[in-house]
Amino acid sequence: MPPGPRLHDTYVAALQHDLAALPEGTTLVGVVRRPTGWFHAAVDENYPEVAPPDALLDDFEEQQEAFAMRGLCAEEAHNAAWDAVDFGERYRRHLQTDSSARDGVADLRDRLRAGESLALVCFENTDAKRCHRTMLREHLLDTLADGE
User: Fold this and answer.
1) What span, in angstroms and rounded, lies between the C-alpha atoms of 51 and 49?
2) Residues 6 or more apart from 132 whose CB is under 8 A from it?
3) Range 69-105 burial, b when 16+ CB lie within 10 A, else e
4) What pLDDT digit, counting tens, does each position of 82-93 carry?
5) Is 43 left (phi over 0), alpha (psi -120 to 50) or beta?
6) Model confidence over 24-35: pLDDT tens digits?
7) Are 136 and 7 in contact (CB under 8 A)?
8) Which of helix, strand or coil describes residue 46?
9) Contact criterion met (CB below 8 Å) for 109 and 17
10) Which residues are CB-contacts of 42 (< 8 A; sequence separation ≥ 6)?
11) What is the pLDDT of residues 51-78, one digit of tens each?
């Protein structure tokens, strides 16, 4: 089976409300830097090292709040803050340069190569908001294709 079908992503509310259609036996892997207790209860494990770093999250949250104070709805404030802090580029750089993030990516990649089915899980519903989880999924698929 090619690696793509074994790697999925979803968000915690979809799991809690039984809205995530995942293959049986899929390991639920949280990719959250600051998980709550109830988040831990929804996933099998968490890899905080592949989540966005604290400095990026702090910058993002500050901008998101500022955009919300200007009257943007939650989704618009989220996406505007994403652009304002250059979230995508900074997160990609984190995955490529941080040794803990690189180790976490390598571990997940090795698990996929061994045939394990994984679902990356965080808080964001990507129907309305951009999310690092989908970027991580693409990064993992790229590293698998590159043979890293």
Assistant:
1) 6
2) 31, 51, 52, 87, 91, 122
3) eeebeeebbbbbbbeebebeeebbebbeeeeebbebb
4) 999 999 999 999
5) beta
6) 999 999 999 999
7) no
8) strand
9) no
10) 12, 15, 16, 28, 30, 121
11) 999 999 999 999 999 999 999 999 999 9
